[in-house]
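Quick start: what a row looks like.
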Amino acid sequence: MHNILKIFKNIAKPFMQKNHHMLPVFDDKAKAIKNELKDFDFNVAHNETSYLLYSKEPFEQIIQNDFFVYISHIDLIKKFNRDFLKGREPFEIDDKYITGALDNTLINAIVIDILKTEFVSIPNNALFLFTYGEEDVDEVDGGMEMFMKLLQSKGVIQNGSFYNMDITNYNWKQSISVEYDEPRTVAKQSFKLLKEQFDVAVQYERWPDDICEVLDYNGAGISICLPTKKEIHSWRNTTKLEKIISYRNFISYITKNPIDLRN
């Protein structure tokens, strides 16, 4: 937990774009993410207006066969960025809870912690995508859309399974909320089995944020979300510390034992 909170604090930086076609006015968060991972031998693709992409093998090589994409968007919430510019601490903690600017910096921190501490065991066909633009009202040509267009241009969308990682207000009683729209039969059965091993709840007919672009391009995708209470885009957003550990363990598991979502 200490490592996750340290990364969270390190990457809680301002990130602002005037629109999706322009370089960020402030890109401190993207720079902080790159700095966290600079000592590891990742292949890195940085589309400076759209996304950061990490993988152990070259992107062009990975997408020729079955691959798995793990998506965590970089937040563009104005009130968070405004307060980060003023130096506000990103969260407060007590014995049980963490409260603050959780969306989506906490999830970014969990993913980065896994990439740093489990580098050796990360599969060669895994892509870790940090997207821009998900929080904007008009998501046309946001980072996820641009990434899907890239895969479409190469004719490889059907080779992929897409996992979106985010904050949710659903399923507070559990530590992991699996959310999707009309899941394929095998994927649905697989996640039911995982409920016996992990503290998982399934939320049907919900496809949050970046996963919408995946579905728009006929990709196979779901969201794995961390349950929280109170308004997500506010400093009052809160979750239990024990949920973070359970969620992190589940994400670690699913990156090493991915379910093919195309079936």
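That is the whole record. Residues 241-256 form the longest helix (16 residues). The chain has one domain: 2-256.
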